[in-house]
Amino acid sequence: MSLNGALQIGQSAILASQAALTVAGNNMANAATPGYHRQRVGIIPGRPEAIGGGQFVGTGVQLGSITRQIDVALQARLRTAIGEQAGAAIDQQFLSGIELLQNELTGSDISSELSEFFNSWSELANNPTDSGMRSLVLQQGESLAGGISQLRQEYTVVREEIDRGLGVSVDRANGLMEEIAQLNIQIAQTEGGAGQANTLRDQRDALVDQLAELINVTTVDQPNGSVDILVGSIPVVLSGESRGIRLDIDSKGNVLEASVRVDADGTDLTVDNGTIGALLRQRDETVDPAIDQLDGFANELINQVNRVHSQGQGMTGWTSLEGATRVLDTSAALNTDAAGIPFDMENGSFILSVVHAETGARASYLVQVDPDSMSLDNLADTINNAVGGPGAVASVSNDGALQLNSAAGYEMEFSEDSSGVLAGLGINTFFSGSSGVDIAVSEALVGNPSLLGAGAEHIAGSNTTALAIVALQDSSIEKLGGRSLRESWSAGVSELAVRTSAANTRLQGASLVKESLQAQSQAVSGVSLDEEAIDLLAYQRQFQAAARYISIIDETMQSLMSIV
């Protein structure tokens, strides 16, 4: 080998050392940079040259590669853990929020309001003619109805918050996918099939990590350096193209269902992790069921109390009244969907009594009801035919309510309703409405507490109806799964408490797993300043040795030149 070749060896050592020093310095400079992966220099010996006699000598050193230190399998596990932790945080947030809204065990919750309501009826039963007790019953009824209505509104606000969160998260995910697609293009162009654009790859990995926090994703590396992003088995990013996702909220009956689809072709995505997956889960498995449970509870509370109250009598009778329930089609059978009555009715009858206000003379009329074949128009005609005189007249209002009016000097009372039609149509009822949305105490009763039906059998001072309503709090109700009103509500509260506790535990576990995987990832990809300092010294010594080597070769060449 010539002296010139020896100089080339020294030069290669200096250049390799310079590159290694630069990489070590870059690692140290980015030790605290989020998403940065430690880089390592791959130094390989130069191709040897033959010097005769079958002998070879090295030609120095060359820079083989500058690569990121990364464990792909560990990175995939970490992204899954990121999504699970983000989803668990959302689960815990909304379950705890619903539990806080219910506000149980505080004295201002539905359970307490329910107890106070039935207790007020018990107090009224002790003194059914006391006007103060009647007003108290109405006040407690309004308090209970107001509490249910307020909770229903708060549930709706939570669902709207989830929908807004879904919209924001989907938009953010789309933005991240667009950026990933653009980085795919830049990486493929920069690398050109050789080497790695480490900084661009770090940026892309950071974006994929952020995307994994929103939605469950997997990545597939491509030969040109780009990555495809899949949700389940459905691609959402293909090389330099983002297919996008969108949020669809569709109306199915009275229910609004949310789903996430690929924007490009409408393919339905199975999203079960990350912020978006957890928001969908909380919407479908927590908030909507909570709304359904509250509405079902309110419906049965209204129906059960009204069924008893509609057969009771107050201190005075009715001179005119209009049913609280509006029938959609007054010519349709009462039990059909076309009529739109939110309560069940059976084949039976009720008694309408017309009482002369001055003499107390009473005439009672049996009204037969077949809700499977009888419309509201038919019922009004049946009442008029049954009464057969001027004592009471039935009609149907323009907005589909049953109206009853007594003649001057007469009052109307109701009893022995085996059909449930009085409660179904809102005649002589305590509550109006049919769910948590519209539950309220009858305005007619609030305006005239003497109409409150505490008695029965037309006996002055009777407390039979009041006692029957008190008994409802512990009565088994078929539609509530055989539970009473109190038991049904308590069961829902208990179930939520169990789920909230489980969500807290799941969040703690997910956080620990994520932290553990982050620590493992940092051990592989993180920058250790101590290690870099050691490498820096080694590369510095290599550079110094190479410089000294070149100096010696230069001195040798000078000596040769002086001889010549």
Quick structural summary:
The protein is an alpha+beta fold. It has 12 helices and 18 strands.
Strand order of the largest sheet: 5-6-7-8
Number of helices: 12
How many DSSP-defined strands? Answer: 18
Mean pLDDT: 90
Structural class: alpha+beta
SSE succession: HEEEEHHHHEEEEEEHEEEHEEEHEEHHHH
User: What number of structural domains do the residues give?
Assistant: 2
Strand content: 15-25%
Distance between the termini: 20 Å
Can you tell me the residue ranges where pLDDT is under 50 for at least 5 consecutive residues?
A: none
Helix amount: 40-55%
Largest sheet: 4 strands, antiparallel
Shape: rod-shaped
Radius of gyration: 40 Å
What would you note in describing this structure?
This protein has 564 residues and is of the alpha+beta class. The chain folds into two domains: 103 residues, no CATH class; 294 residues, no CATH class. It is 52% helix and 17% strand. The protein is built from twelve helices and 18 strands. Strand 17 and strand 18 form a beta hairpin. The two termini are 20 Å apart.
Properties at a glance:
564 residues; alpha+beta; 2 domains; 4-stranded antiparallel sheet; 12 helices; 18 strands
Show the helix and strand layout.
Layout: H1 3-29, E1 39-45, E2 49-52, E3 55-57, E4 61-68, H2 72-102, H3 110-126, H4 131-191, H5 198-214, E5 218-221, E6 227-231, E7 234-238, E8 241-242, E9 245-252, E10 255-262, H6 274-309, E11 320-322, E12 348-356, E13 362-369, H7 376-387, E14 392-396, E15 402-406, E16 410-415, H8 421-425, E17 431-432, E18 440-441, H9 443-447, H10 464-471, H11 485-525, H12 529-563
Antiparallel strand pairs: 1-4, 2-3, 5-6, 6-7, 7-8, 9-10, 11-15, 12-13, 12-16, 14-15, 17-18
